[in-house]
Amino acid sequence: MFDAELDMYDHLIPELEDLYAKNTSISPKFKPVHLKFPGKPVKSDYILLEDLRKKGYRNADRTQGLEQFEVEAVLKKLAQWHAASAKRVVELGEYEKDIRESYFTTEHQKLLDEFNINFCMPFLECMQQYNLEPGQLVLISDYTSQLTDLNIEFGKNDPLELSVLNHGDFWCNNFMFKYKNASEVEDVCFVDFQLPKYGTPAQDLLCILMTSPKFSIKLDKFDYFIEYYHQQLVEHLTMLNYNRNAPTLSKFHAHLHRYSLWAFICAQRMLPIVLLPPDVGSHIGNVMGNSEEAIAFKRKMFLLPAYVDQIKVILPWLINRGYIR
């Protein structure tokens, strides 16, 4: 992960920023300034970044969720990023194999199986308290039994579809806002580039939309947010003179339906972490592990009242859209 993130800061992100500088009149910046210690090489690996807080950037409150104007600002910046990452393939060639495949491969099947079991066992127990209909419970249970195969299929890149470089972990803790005023964003800056994945834009898009907007707008504005992102994506692909397979809005909706796995994954695994108050038990071992302590922590997470209030509505909504099938 460290090498991947360092490569993003040193090479890939500057390449994306250069594409705008060379081809357009805008110059979006996607990362903090990356610094190096002068003089002799440092003995340990490190990533040294400017403190964005000194420039007025800050994180939003993840437990409260983003307002519509904040979501729009993030989606515009994401569309700029995705557009440049698609253009980069035309200009500079394919991304490295590790970025094209990430962990969505048969070589990682055992790891995927472990992740899925560790999350789904306590989730399916807690799901009995989400007031779902019997048929919905059966459908979701059957769906979770296929998650490893669905993950591997999700990771395959279709040359006939638009592929982009995904941030890979795109929720509200991994971007920072600089505000003009209480209802307008001046800029958004991305951070934490440990999990880049070249593939469907559904990965980043469904991640932010399932995890980060206020619940009052998350589902009601979902189609609007898709349309807004698509508009910005097409606009910036055009700006960059990208003339390959940019989808129409209707085709993009069909694309999201095809790759809808990520909506469930993010609602099941990331949303409860987003909503969890600061807690001494919320370390990576408890989130990803299968110890008694870790399973108990995940049960607590899946029964968090703020999460239950959302997931009992989100799951039927995903079923009605055909995103769980």
From TrEMBL:
Spans traversing the lipid bilayer: none
InterPro entries with a match to the protein in the record: CHK_kinase-like, EcKL, Kinase-like_dom_sf
Annotated Pfam families: EcKL
Domain CHK kinase-like as annotated: residue spans: 47-239
Superkingdom as given in the UniProt entry: Eukaryota
This protein's name: CHKov2
